[in-house]
Amino acid sequence: MAKRASPSTPRRRKARAKPKSAAVRKRGAPAKKAAPARKAPAVRKRAGKAAVRKAAVRKVSARKAPVRKAATSGAGRKAAGATPIRKPAARKAAPPAARPAPQRFTVSHLREEDFQTNGLRPYARYRDLGIAEATGGLARAHVIRMIPPVTEDVRQRHAHTVDLQLVYVLKGWMKNEFAGHGVQMMEAGSCWLQPPGIAHTVLDYSDDLEVLEVIVPADFDTSLVD
């Protein structure tokens, strides 16, 4: 004869089953897919912040791009932490050079009394042509008549501090020696240019020597040369 189940058995099983099912539900709750759904907004929020930061970086880079371009090829300099090169300030325009005094018309006609001995050399007579006054000191022009005889004072080697010195023989002849060019015989119709500061010596000349000399500027210095 089969034994009857004890009335306490179902209760015990039921009592055991309840906590077991509760424990299953408690442990199984995190396993539901609702948890990833709750985390999704946080992930999207973090991703959104990253996108905002990237957009801000691009915006700042766009604003700074012209500065990097103007700072020479300084991408490497900036990456290395070097001080950026500043664009130099624009230089002020230099004031215009002073213009020479205005020139005026002048004319000089031959008069014997115009040949004076109070010129540059005591052994010559000078006829000033009025060019220095007419040009405000820009140039000087005179006719020179050498006084014979040729002395040792005449033959002293010398040089002139000028910008230009041109000589043209009107009458007679003249023998000179120029540094680097040797002895030169100048006759009527001869013309020469003496470079600034060239050392030269008057060796001899005819009794009727007459030359035209043009000098720039009007006032200049003469010094003896050994």
Give the structure's gist in a few sentences:
With 226 residues, this protein is an alpha+beta fold.
Q: Identify the quaternary structure here.
A: single chain
Write out the CATH superfamily name of the domain at 112-224. Jelly Rolls
Instruction: Please mark out the parts with pLDDT under 50 across 5 or more consecutive residues, or reply none.
Output: 20-24, 67-72
Main sheet record: 5 strands, antiparallel
The H-and-E topology, N to C, reads as HHHEHEEEEEEEEE
The CATH class of the domain at 112-224: Mainly Beta
The CATH topology of the domain at 112-224? Jelly Rolls
Q: Kindly report the average pLDDT value.
A: 77
> If strands are numbered along the chain, what order do they take across the biggest sheet?
1-2-9-4-7
Walkthrough of the structure:
The chain is of the alpha+beta class. Among the domains are: 42-78; 112-224, Jelly Rolls (Sandwich). It is 30% helix and 25% strand. The protein has four helices and ten strands. The chain has helices at residues 8-28, 34-70, 75-79, 131-134; strands spanning 124-128, 140-146, 158-161, 164-171, 173-178, 182-187, 191-193, 200-205, 210-216, 221-224. Strands 1-2-9-4-7 form a five-stranded antiparallel sheet. The longest helix has 37 residues, at 34-70. The protein is elongated, with a radius of gyration of 55 Å. The N and C termini lie far apart (162 Å). Residues 20-24 and 67-72 have low confidence and may be disordered.
